[in-house]
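Supplementary Methods. Inverse-folding protocol.

Structures were first reduced to a C-alpha cell string of length 159. This string, shown here, constituted the complete conditioning input.
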C-alpha cells in the first residue's frame, strides 16, 4: 500500500530513491470516482519503473480545471483510495492547476500521461527530458471515464 505524503516529503523520498538508483515514474491527475481505466493506466505507468509517484490535484485546483461541480469525491478520500492501489507507491496533492512546480522539484526519470495528450503538450516534458528522462503516453480504455460514470448516473437516476 502506498502513502499520501507532502511535497517536501516526496522530494526527500525522490532524493533517496535517486541515490539508490531506483527509476522513478511520475503521473498526475484528478482521479475523481476511481474506475478500471484509472487502475489499468496506473498499473501500466508503474511497469515503466521501480516506483510510481502520483501527483493529485487538490479540490481547489480541480474546481479551476473542471466543470460540472467537480470533484465529486473530496481530495483526502481520493488520495487515500489512490494510495491503496498496489501500483501506487506515493500520492502527493498539489494546489496548482498543473504539476509543473511539483515536477520541477522531483525531476522524475519517467513522466507518464494519457495518450489523449500530444507529447509536445505534456506539462513538465522539458524538465524531464533536460535531465535525461523520458516522457511516455499510455492508451486509455475506451468508454472508461469519470465523465461517463457521471453521465450514466444522471441518465439513470434523474427521472
Amino acid at each position: 500500500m502506498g502513502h499520501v505524503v507532502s511535497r517536501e516529503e516526496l522530494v526527500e523520498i525522490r532524493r533517496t530513491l535517486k541515490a539508490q538508483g531506483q527509476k522513478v515514474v511520475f503521473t498526475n491527475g484528478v482521479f475523481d470516482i476511481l474506475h478500471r481505466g484509472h487502475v489499468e493506466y496506473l498499473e501500466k505507468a508503474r511497469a515503466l519503473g521501480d516506483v510510481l509517484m502520483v501527483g493529485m490535484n487538490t479540490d481547489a485546483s480541480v474546481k479551476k480545471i473542471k466543470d460540472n461541480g467537480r470533484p465529486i469525491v473530496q481530495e483526502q478520500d481520493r488520495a487515500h483510495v489512490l494510495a491503496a492501489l498496489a501500483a501506487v507507491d506515493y500520492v502527493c496533492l498539489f494546489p496548482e492547476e498543473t504539476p509543473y512546480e511539483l515536477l520541477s522539484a522531483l525531476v522524475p526519470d519517467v513522466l507518464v500521461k494519457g495518450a489523449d495528450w500530444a507529447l509536445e503538450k505534456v506539462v513538465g516534458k522539458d524538465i524531464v527530458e533536460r535531465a535525461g528522462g523520458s516522457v511516455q503516453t499510455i492508451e486509455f480504455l475506451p468508454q472508461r471515464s469519470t465523465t461517463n460514470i457521471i453521465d450514466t448516473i444522471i441518465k439513470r437516476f434523474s427521472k
